[in-house]
Amino acid sequence: MESSKVIETLWDRIQARDWAGVAALIAEDVVVEWPISLERIVGRDNFVAVNREYPEGWSIRVLKVVAEGDEVVSEVEVPHDSLGVFRAASFWTVRDGRVVRGTEYWTSLGADPRPEWRASLVEPM
């Protein structure tokens, strides 16, 4: 499976709560880093558990997947019934059909307030 399809399938399986299917796409020794919260997930079992145990009420909408060789970037939107809307930009490395490394930047919409110095140069979304 080409690397972009691995990541598209990964998000589809996470959305479906197909945890065995997610595990099949993740290398046993995967390392996924979340720099915003200063966390590192080491190992397939931990990656699956973090996603499986997240409080219910969420869905995933894939906005974009771009790949070049083994490197894949995805952007997803994750609305949650009670926690708000989140976005993630994820940078993945895929080898032999499995994710071996990832760096994900998760944030909620509007979490970073617009500074006053650029207010006249931008418009609100």
From TrEMBL:
Superkingdom to which the source organism belongs: Bacteria
Q: Which InterPro entries match?
A: NTF2-like_dom_sf, SnoaL-like
Cleaved signal peptide residues: none
Q: Pfam families per the record?
A: SnoaL_2
Give the matching SUPFAM superfamilies.
Answer: NTF2-like
Q: Where is the SnoaL-like domain?
A: 8-101
What name does the UniProt record give this protein? Nuclear transport factor 2 family protein
Which species is this record about?
A: Streptomyces coelicoflavus
Recite the lineage of the species: Bacteria, Bacillati, Actinomycetota, Actinomycetes, Kitasatosporales
